[in-house]
Amino acid sequence: MDYWFLGKCFLVGLSASCTVGPIFILTFNNSALHGFLKGLFTALGAAIGDGILLFLGLMGALGILHEFDYSRLIIDLAGGILLVVFGIVMIMQRNKFLSDVKVRQSADTLLLTLAKSLISTILNPLTLIFFMFIGSQLMPHTQEFFTRSQMMMGSLMTTLGSLVVLSAIAYAASRLHTVITPKKLAFISLITAGILIFIGAYFVGDAVKILQTLHAGI
Fold first, then answer.
1. Burial degree of 145 (CB within 10 A; 0-12, 13-18, 19+)
2. pTM over 0.70
3. What's the number of domains the chain is made of?
4. Cβ–Cβ < 8 Å for 152, 9
5. What pLDDT is stored for residue 57 in this prediction?
6. DSSP line for 180-199
7. Distance linking the first and last C-alpha atoms of the chain
8. What is the DSSP letter of 94?
């Protein structure tokens, strides 16, 4: 077993999750507003998404996908709209933090949180580009392709690396949940929503530019 390769995949997970992006913000926000458990499931969904993307990157599938303009258009549009919707929902729900009623986290809501985080990670265009580049850089000089076991173990190590960082962020942010006032929690939710809407609008704008380019080339 190539432990050096597995170590690099673990570092890829650490690097991907340390970047202050939509998932970092969602993990922090969910932990600060709802407690550690919801933040942990947000982190788990993102970590699984990172592992899947590394697997696809090692296969070369992301590189092939990025070659087609229409696939880039769909990813930018879907990812952007998803972030905008998340932001709008967050704004609509921010007032509940002003009440003293504690929201119970059921298994269904936690699984939904995991699914949202997973989809957001996979549809994030910047994350796709990152793993497309990393997938080509991890290839050892002595090999022409990755074996299935290498791809699976590398994906698992990336998931683990990402989960280590994001769960630590979730724990740190959850400490705020016990000391911060409801008004400040609502304000954090509003700021987070604004950031997500801004990033989502950027991706939607990029999708519009790609669409204009495609139409101009017809």
1. exposed
2. yes
3. 1
4. no
5. 84
6. S-HHHHHHHHHHHHHHHHHH
7. 50
8. G
